[in-house]
Write a structure and sequence with these properties.
With 137 residues, the protein is α+β, with helices and mostly antiparallel strands. It has a single domain (30-134), classed as Hotdog Thioesterase (Thiol Ester Dehydrase, Chain A, Roll), CATH 3.10.129. It has helices at residues 5-16, 22-26, 57-76, and strands at 30-34, 37-42, 81-89, 98-108, 111-119, 125-134. Strands 1-2-4-5-6-3 form a six-stranded antiparallel beta sheet, with helices on one face. The chain is globular.
C-alpha cells in the first residue's frame, strides 16, 4: 500500500526529529525568499482544523513564528528569539495552500520588529502577526 503525502510527512518528521524541526516537516512548510521577505507555503489539512472549523488558530500563529524565524536567520545569521508575538485573526483558513509572508518592520541593535500576514488559496487575508524579536548582537 502506497503512503499518502500526509503519511510521508508524518513518517519523515518522526524519522528526522533529532536532525530537523518536527513541526516544520509535519506541517509541510515550504520556505522561499523574495527581496526582503520570507514566504512560507503550507497545506491546509482538515485534520488540523479546530472544532469550530478552519485551520487551528494556534497553528496559524506557529506558522507565523516559524516564518519570522527563517527571515531573521536569513537576514541576521541567527533565528533569534521571539520576545512577544501578537496575532489578529480575520477569517477562518479553510482552503489551501496557505501563504505566510514575513518582513522586518525595523531593527535597532539587537531588537527587531517583524510583521507577517497569512492568506488562503484565494489570496484572502486570514491573519496578521506582529512580533518583537531578540536578534544576535
Amino acid at each position: 500500500m502506497k503512503e499518502t503525502a500526509l503519511q510521508q510527512r508524518l513518517s519523515g518528521a518522526l524519522k528526522n526529529y533529532k536532525n530537523s524541526f518536527f513541526l516544520f516537516e509535519f506541517l509541510g512548510l515550504k520556505i522561499s525568499y523574495q527581496n526582503d521577505k520570507c514566504i512560507c507555503l503550507f497545506p491546509v489539512d482538515d485534520f488540523l482544523f479546530s472544532p469550530f472549523g478552519g485551520f487551528h488558530a494556534g497553528l496559524i500563529t506557529t506558522v507565523i513564528d516559524i516564518t519570522m524565524a527563517h527571515l531573521s536567520k536569513k537576514m541576521t545569521g541567527s533565528a533569534g528569539a521571539t520576545i512577544e508575538l501578537q496575532t489578529k485573526y480575520f477569517h477562518k483558513l479553510n482552503r489551501g495552500p496557505g501563504r505566510c509572508e514575513a518582513q522586518f518592520l525595523n531593527q535597532d541593535n539587537s531588537i527587531g520588529r517583524l510583521d507577517a500576514k497569512v492568506w488562503d488559496a484565494d489570496a484572502f487575508l486570514i491573519a496578521e502577526g506582529t512580533a518583537t524579536w531578540r536578534l544576535p548582537d
